[in-house]
Amino acid sequence: MAKYIDNKTGFKIIEVSYKEITSWEGFGICDHCNEKINLSINHFYIPVLNHCVCPKCKDEWERNAKFYPEDLAYQAKNIEWLKKYCIIEGEEDLPRLIIYVLYDHPSDFPNHFLIRRHFILGGRIKPEKGAFIVSNDLDFLRQKLKKMDLICIPRDETDDPVIIESWI
């Protein structure tokens, strides 16, 4: 089963098996060094690059990666694509209903607007850790949500003041 790997880049890295790589019709070749993938060890999908790499190239990328918040939307799109082919550990029982909440400079991202997903799970709302998409441009985020064919739900007066609106 694929699983997220802790790292210090600010981006997600997902450990994947050869079987998972071939499920999305990957060719079993590292996207960085072009070496054939060793079937006996897991490799790593880096969604922000849309690359699958060997352990050596993952380590090298981690050392040199530079975090840009505007890349998080591309990363999120690629993670959603990956979920069509494999289950990511810890997300086995994620719900089908997701509420996308648009925030105005929350305390964990004081210089940005952001979208954070909230999952409806077992009758509870479970917020995503971190951010789904981050931007300085509120209209850009709204356009992203519209392109996902979501419907805007206006802010309720009892919502936290940093919540602008929600989308389902």
Write the layout of secondary structure elements.
Elements: E1 3-5, E2 13-16, H1 18-23, E3 43-46, E4 51-53, H2 55-64, H3 72-82, E5 98-104, E6 113-121, E7 124-127, E8 133-135, H4 138-147, E9 152-154, E10 163-167
Cα-to-Cα separation, first versus last residue: 29 Å
Number of helices: 4
Report the mean per-residue pLDDT as an integer. 88
Strand-residue fraction? 25-35%
- From the alpha-carbon coordinates, what is the Rg to the nearest angstrom? 17 Å
Helix-strand pattern: EEHEEHHEEEEHEE
Number of domains: 2
Number of strands: 10
> Helix share of residues?
10-25%
**Uncertain residue segments:** none
The major sheet is characterized as: 6 strands, antiparallel
Shape: elongated
The chain-level structural class is alpha+beta
Write a short abstract of this structure:
By secondary structure, this protein is α+β, with helices and mostly antiparallel strands. It has helices at 18-23, 55-64, 72-82, 138-147, and strands spanning 3-5, 13-16, 43-46, 51-53, 98-104, 113-121, 124-127, 133-135, 152-154, 163-167.
Protein model, in words:
The chain is an alpha+beta fold and 168 residues long. The protein has two domains: 3-82, no CATH class; 98-167, no CATH class. Helices cover 22% and strands 27% of the residues. It has helices at residues 18-23, 55-64, 72-82, 138-147; strands at residues 3-5, 13-16, 43-46, 51-53, 98-104, 113-121, 124-127, 133-135, 152-154, 163-167. The strands form two sheets. Strands 5, 6, 7, 8, 9 and 10 form a six-stranded antiparallel sheet that branches. A four-stranded antiparallel sheet has the order 1-2-3-4. The radius of gyration is 17 Å and the shape is elongated.
